[in-house]
Amino acid sequence: MTEYAPPDPARPHELTREAVLGRFLRAHRERLAPAEVGLAPGRRRRTPGLRREELAQLAGLSATWVTWLEQGRPVALSARALASLAGALRLSRAERAYLFELAGRRDPMQAQDEHAPAAVLASVEAINGPAYLLDRQWSALAWNAAAADLFVGWLDPASEDRNLLRSMFLSPGLQALVEDWPHRAARLVSEFRAHSIRHADDPPMRALVEGLIAQSPVFRADWLSQDVEERQGGRRGFQHPLRGLLHFEQLTLVPAAAPGLTLVMLMPA
């Protein structure tokens, strides 16, 4: 059996992801004072922070596992165990996201974080051209007047379903609006497949896809094609019933304050 050799901290460029994770955990453990988590300072502490055994107890984990994690060993932790560590260490939102990214796990709390901050909602109204904000399932949370005027069959006052994917395949008004609809619809499905993979098992995501497979033969064929594309900007054409053919350049952004949401803006081409 080969003896475990810890990574050399003097060569940070050679550190593995596990080693970086271990150093991150140790640094945050050592900076967390016992009083902050309701523990007595005690005697003979080598550092002012928590001991490994104390962190393990707070997180409900084995002290051996905490030790191995800090040593950079390839220990596979579940998302639930990582969440316990994040809570025990009092990690901030950014720190928690960094922890899960290092561990290659999906944060179970992320699926619950779907609210749109007031500043993000206000930005939609502040944009001159058509703009809208999508949630994880690509339902519109907010849109401005220009978007309501443009997107007949989806965001106009007469439409009831605000989900972009469902409207693209089930709304005759939106299908007539979108230039080269078969190509754009297929592209949208391949983009959604790439977007949704991390949340494919979420009940709302599964219900959306399964419902469209049952309701739209075109969506079913596009979904079963297994095509995957990144969501990109570019030229978009619309055959508006009142204003004729319109072209825009699309820009898609992910707000830093709400990484589960998508902000889309259309600028005159």
From TrEMBL:
Pfam family, one: HTH_31
SUPFAM superfamilies reported in the protein's UniProt record: lambda repressor-like DNA-binding domains
InterPro entries: Cro/C1-type_HTH, Lambda_DNA-bd_dom_sf, MLTR_LBD
Molecular function (Gene Ontology), one example: DNA binding
Domain HTH cro/C1-type: 24-96
Keywords per UniProt: DNA-binding
PANTHER family (UniProt xref): BLL4672 PROTEIN (PTHR35010:SF2), BLL4672 PROTEIN-RELATED (PTHR35010)
Protein name: Putative DNA-binding protein
Natural source organism: Cupriavidus basilensis
